[in-house]
């Protein structure tokens, strides 16, 4: 692997880490309805674990209400069970055709707990970015060791990798700040 490939690979993997972090943030409850809260839930549908997004239409008719309408009416009870088993802490209201999830307002204590959880998720994302840096630096070291790259080019590549780390950690911090404001918003 040459230096350019190592840099491109590292950048691509860091981008994926930030995208994963962004998706993880979507699953953190705020005071508002968000389909990302439930779309990843797994429903036991005819013996197969299927994501809610594949089984149902999700809509947000009001800021604090998620409406879940299964494509197959027979799946309604399975969807309801999956929501009850989840860690959402929201009781589903089943009217026989669809399920409504009323998102309760968050208490100050719950908001603080959610912010703590968001910070933990951001640290996991930063750790992933740093692990990618470690892997990229190993690739640079291996390329330098086999003699195909001059020492100056290897140092430059390591600096470029560190610049990528700073850039992607900045993106993570930016997303963290937005989510923290959203959670603490009354």
Notes on the protein architecture:
This protein folds into 2 domains: 3-26 and 107-184, Topoisomerase I, Chain A, domain 4 (Orthogonal Bundle); 35-102, Gyrase A, domain 2, CATH 3.30.1360. The longest helix is centred in the last third of the chain and has 38 residues, at 108-145. 59% of the residues lie in helices and 15% in strands. The mean pLDDT is 89. It has helices at 3-26, 52-55, 76-85, 108-145, 151-184, and strands at residues 42-45, 48-51, 56-62, 65-70, 93-94, 99-102. It has a 4-stranded antiparallel beta sheet. The chain has a two-stranded antiparallel sheet with strand order 1-2.
Briefly say what this structure is.
The protein is an alpha+beta fold and 186 residues long. The protein is 59% helix and 15% strand. The protein has two domains: 3-26 and 107-184, Topoisomerase I, Chain A, domain 4 (Orthogonal Bundle); 35-102, Gyrase A, domain 2.
